User: Fold this.
Amino acid sequence: MLLREMQRQKGRTVQIIALVVLVCGLVAAGIGLGFLVREVGYDLNPVLVVAVDLVALLIFTIMVSSTLARAAQVLYLRDDLDLLLSSPLPPGRILAVRFAGIAFSVTLFWLVLAAGLLAPIAVIAAPALLAVLPVLLALGLVASAVGLLLTTLLFRLIGPRRTRTLAQVLSALIGASLFLSSQLPNILRGKSESYSRWGWLRPYFTGEAHLDLPPHADLIARAAVGQPIPLLLVLAVSLVFFMLVTGMLGRQFARDAASAIGSDPARRVSKRVTGAFAAGAFAATLRKELRLLMRDISLFSQVLLRVLYMLPLAFVFVRNASAGDSLLLPTAAAAMAVMAGQLSSSFTWITVSAEDAPDLLVAAPASMSLITRAKLWAALIPTAVLVAIPLLAVGLFAPLTALVSAAGCFASAWACGVVNIWRQRPGRRADFRRRGNVNWVVAFAILGISGLIGGATFLAASGMTWAILPAVLAAVLTLAMRRSDKQIRERLRDEA
Amino acid sequence: MTDALHLSGLTKTFGAKRAVDNLDLTVRSGELYALLGPNGAGKTTTLRMVAGLLAPTSGAISVFGVDAVKDPAAAKQIIAWAPDEPMLYDRLNPMEYLEFVAGLWGVDGKTARKRAEDLLKWLDLWDQRAQRCEGFSRGMKQKTALAGALIHDPRLLMLDEPPTGLDAAMARQVKDVLQERVRQGGTVILTTHILEVAERMADRIGIIQHGRLLAEGSLEDLRALGGGAGATLEDLFLQLTGQAAVA
Assistant:
C-alpha cells in the first residue's frame, strides 16, 4: 500500500515537473510574442477571426471529450456517490457541485497554459488579451454542459458500464482524430511540391483576397481581445447554458446514478459456451489472456491509438514509396520495429503486471516461467496481427525489406516484452496510462531498446552491415534489465 | 495413515513482527478442521504458507507426506486454496475460469470439462455458466472460486473465511458442499471467526492467537480443557484467548 502510494506520488511529481517545464516554455514563448505584439500590434481581420474560432473549436472539442470520460467516471465512483446521495443534502445540489467540479477540472489545464502564455504578453504589450482567460472559462462551461448532455444520452441508450467504455474510447478517438487532422497537410501535399504550410493565407493578409464571414463569427475573437460587450455576452450565455443544462440534468443524473448503484452491473453473456477445454497451463493461460485482452475494449482502444498515431507516417510512406524514394522503405521498416516494441510492451504490461489474480498463479503448481511465457505470447499475437498490415504493405513494394522488417519487429516486440516481464510491478488495468510515470526506468529502457532495434532495422533494410552496432547495443540494454525468476519473485514478494 | 497436513516449528516474521510463532499443527486426512482466532492471529498467514504464497521464515510443512518447502510444485498439485476475496477474472465466465484453473493444475481438457459441468451444476451455477463474473453477487463469486478450487480434485482444500458475505441460503450450500467433500474422503481446513460455523461443521478445532496454537481438539476436548459441559465454543474461545492475553 505504502509502496503504491509512493509510486502514485512519484507519478504525480513527474506530471507536475512536466507541467512546470511546459509553462516555462510557454512563458518564454509569451515573452517573444509580447514583443512582437508591441511591435506589430494586432488587428481583428477576418483571418485572425477564423484562426481564433478554429482554435476555440479545437479546445472546445478536447474539453468535450475530457468531460465525456470524466462524467462517466464520476457516475461510476460508486462508494463516493453512494455516500453523497445518502446524505440529507438534495441530490440536485450535490450533482451541481460535482458538475461544476468537472467543468473546473476540464478548464483548469487550459487556463494554466493560457496564463503562462498570456501573462508576459499582457505585461509587455496588451493587457486586454487577458480576456482570453474568461473566454476559456466560458468555453469550459459550455463544453462541460455538452459533454454531460452526451453522457446522459449515452447512459439512457446503452447503460452505465458501456457508457463509461464508450466515453473513454470516444475521448481517445477525438484526440486521435484531432492529431490526424493536424497531419492532413503532410499527408495531402505532393512530394515534389515546394510547400509552405501557411502560404495560402498570404493573399488574405495582403488584401488580394477577401474572406466573407457569417454574422457574429467574430464574437469569440472580440471577447478574447477584451471588448466588454462581447466578453460579457459570452460569459453570460455560457453560464446560463451551463446552469440550465446541469439544473435539468441534476435530477436525471441522480436517478441514473441511483440505478447504477442499486442494480448489479449488466450481466454480459458470452455468445457461445466454451467448447473443448485447453490442455495444459501454457494453452490455458494463452487463451485466458487473449480473451481478457479482446474484452477490454477501453484498454485495447488505448493501445490501438498508438497505431492510429502512426497512420500519417504510413500514408506518407505509401505515397512516396510508390514514387520511388530509396530512404522511405528503410524508414518504414524502422517505424514498424519501434511500433512493434511499443505495442508489445503495452500488451505485456496488461497481461503480466495487470494480472487480476496473482495469488491464483502462485498457488498453482505450474511453473511461473511457463505462465509468463504464455503471457508474453499472448502479448505478441495481437502485436503481430497489428504489425502484419503495414508489413504486408511493405511486402508489396519490397519483399526483402518486409523480411528484414519482420525480423526487426519480432526482435523489438520480444525484447520489450521480456523487459516488462523482468521488471514487472503489480498494477491495475486502470493504471495503464500512468504506468510510465510509475516505472519510468522501464519506460525509458523500452523506448531505448525499440529505438535501437528500429535503427538496426533501418540500417539492415538499407543494406548496411553497421546494423550490427545498434542491434548489439539493444541486446546489451535488454540484458542490463534482466532479472532472474528468483529476483522477480523476491521483488514481487517485497512489494506485496 | 499419513496426515493431511503437518506443520512443525512453522514461523513467519514480517520485520520485527512474528505473525506465526513456532507453530506445530497436525490435520488428519479426511477431517474438517477449523482454525479459529481473532483478527491478526496468524490464521491466514499460516494457510498462505501452506499454499506456497509465502515462504516460511523457518519450520517445516508436510502435505500428505510431501515437503511443501522443498517441493512446492508437488504439494500445490494436491492443495486447493480459496481466500476470502475470490481470485476471479471479471471478464471471464465461470466455464472459462474453470478452463483456466484446470489448465494451471494440468487437468486434461476432457476431464476438466466434465468436472466443470458437474461442479457448476452442483453449485447451482449452471444457468450462469456463460455470464461474465463481473455481474455476479459476492456469493456467486465465492461459489465460482470454490468450483475453481475443486476442479483439480484436491486432497486438501483450504478456505479462508468461506461463509463471509454469503446470505443464509448460500452459506448453507457452501457448508453442504464442504461436508460432502469430507464425506467423500477429502480433507478441508477452514479459517473462520464465526464460531457457529466451526462449532457446527468442524471435526476438530484449533484456536490460534499471536501465531501460536492455544488449544486444539473436538468441541468436547475443548470443553474438557475448561468451561464445563454446557460451555459454548464462544465461551471457550473467549476464555482461552483471554488466558493468553493475561499470560
Observations:
- Chain B touches chain A through 45 residues (CB under 8 Å).
- Chain B has a mean pLDDT of 87.
